[in-house]
Amino acid sequence: MNTYHQWKKCQSNRKEALNWLSNAKKIDSQSGQLYNLKVSLGKKSVEYCGQAYAGAENYHSCPEEFIKYMEMAIIRKFTDITDEAMRIMKNEEDKAAIAAKDGILDQLKEIEEIENNKKNEN
In the predicted model, is pLDDT for residue 16 greater than 70? Predict the structure, then answer.
């Protein structure tokens, strides 16, 4: 994938995330209340990875009982977490745009050459 397409993919991903985040402001048609945020880490792995010494345990799984408290904390801090996630996504998108600049400028030069050749033909 060239840098231009990477940049466009970053833009698309961020737009998709913003669209999903808009659910936070939507009203449920049945209850008349804001949509509920459901976080379920139970099906995901939360681990510390590291080894105290050669041959020691590599993966240190989160205690199962602690998962529900992590879920509650994520719900409570969700706005802060999503704001930070969006800042990170925007930063990645900006980096991709800058990386795409040279390729886009090369394409523009090529287009300008084609335009100039067409003008000279007339």
Answer: yes
The count of C-alpha atoms lying within 13 angstroms of the C-alpha of 94, restricted to the half-sphere facing its C-beta, is 6
DSSP state of 107: H
pLDDT at 45: 67
- For residues 60 and 47, give the distance between their C-alpha atoms in angstroms, rounded to a whole number: 5
Amino acid at 12: S
Q: Are 117 and 17 in contact (CB under 8 A)?
A: no
Q: What is the DSSP string of 18-59?
A: HHHHGGGGPBPTTTSSBPPP----TTS--EEE--SSTTS--E
Residues 33, 51: Cα–Cα separation, whole Å: 47
* 17 and 90 Cβ atoms separated by less than 8 Å: no
**pTM of this prediction exceeds 0.85:** no
Which helix (H) or strand (E) segment holds residue 14: the answer is helix 3-21
pLDDT of 42 higher than 70: no
